């Protein structure tokens, strides 16, 4: 595809995203490209990059275009994004040529709205901080509660594009095997600093076309997500429950740490997500996983109360820790969402706790930056359930890096750790106290 055709594709993709405001942009993009299978891998990456640049700079672009005549359309946003990234006005006009596969020429009004942006930068100290750092105004107190004086630096780190992290599947080979296999296909990965199984690539790379991915030697998984699995410390003789398994990313990693032994139950309330795990499990060579769909009135949990050595609760959350990867989520999130999620997380914790056997552990995790979903949620749970305690630091698994074993709960951020934003806490269910009869006095 020509640069003009790629630009046209990015504008069409942004229109599709705009027309489905409550749907995650990556889901819209997947559907968009499925319907256009003629678009090759390189062109898909280029189109996605153009569209995601607009989503990452959404508030700043609108600030620059404030006072524009007419609608601030995806056409205008794409053109403004290019101008504020160093493209000249003449180059932009050439891309809007009206020729085959190109967008129609800029209208006089669009031209007027855009030409004053030439030579300017996307970020400006004149912008209010919430606009410059691309977060909703209403969430600032919660971010300051989490980060204090580091808030601006942490949120600035959220503006960049994420790395592409892989987890080596030790059921299929070593990290060195994976490095060599990827290098043969021109993918130069480096080991991650914190995860013992991680590899990292810069930017968008065609990993799913690589033989190492097709053979199940590597899986796409952020380093932070890998560390949540490390915290679970699932062992070959364990019965493990992945309570909010989704499409099975952490389930796969749990199976690896268990050496494909023991038993894992992957649960979720969404059937399609569980179905999506089947292909991934097969590719990874995993065969110790049972899937279960959670439905209202299900007696499954009641029958298995207190039977699992490990219960991983990767709770539904605001996703604020993934804003680098999902910048559109900043635009959809509302205060009401947070209120509803905190209630849901509390209910899930209580249900999952009943499935942990005495002496077993529950691992609570989110990809949120907010204290209300993280530490405060744990504090409230431990007040309700006095039979649970945070695991002592000396008992945390050695798989975790030393700096993360210093606390029974840990958080990760792009600025400090180079990962998505994650929170995890390991709790243990206490053994019931046995009452002993006092010896009679003589």
Describe the fold and architecture:
With 442 residues, the chain is of the alpha/beta class. Helix content is 41%, strand content 14%. It has 20 helices and 12 strands. Strands 5, 6, 7, 8, 9, 10, 11 and 12 form an 8-stranded mixed beta sheet that branches. A 4-stranded antiparallel beta sheet has the order 2-3-1-4. Helix 14 (249-257) links the parallel strand 5 and strand 6. Helix 1 (3-18) crosses helix 3 and helix 13 (223-232) packs across helix 14 (249-257). The radius of gyration is 24 Å and the shape is globular. 42% of the residues are buried. The model is unreliable at 436-442 (pLDDT under 50). Belongs to the class I-like SAM-binding methyltransferase superfamily. RsmB/NOP family. This is tRNA/rRNA cytosine-C5-methylase. Keywords: Methyltransferase, RNA-binding, S-adenosyl-L-methionine, Transferase. S-adenosyl-L-methionine binds at residues 268, 314. Residues 154-430 form the SAM-dependent MTase RsmB/NOP-type domain.
Task: Give descriptors for this structure.
442 residues, methyltransferase, MeTrfase_RsmB-F_NOP2_cat, SAM-dependent_MTases_sf, alpha/beta, MeTrfase_RsmB-F_NOP2_dom, 41% helix
Low-confidence stretches: 436-442
Determine the strand fraction and express it as a percent band.
5-15%
Number of strands: 12
> What distance lies between the first and last C-alpha atoms, to the nearest angstrom?
96 Å
Largest sheet: 8 strands, mixed
How many helices? The count is 20
Mean pLDDT, all residues: 92
**Gyration radius over CA:** 24 Å
Helix/strand-derived class? Answer: alpha/beta
Describe the global form. globular
Give the assembly state of these chains. Answer: single chain
Helix proportion range: 40-55%
Family: Belongs to the class I-like SAM-binding methyltransferase superfamily. RsmB/NOP family.
Active site: 367 (nucleophile)
Binding site for S-adenosyl-L-methionine: 268, 314
InterPro entries: MeTrfase_RsmB-F_NOP2_cat, MeTrfase_RsmB-F_NOP2_dom, RCMT, RsmB-like_ferredoxin, RsmB/NOL1/NOP2-like_CS, SAM-dependent_MTases_sf
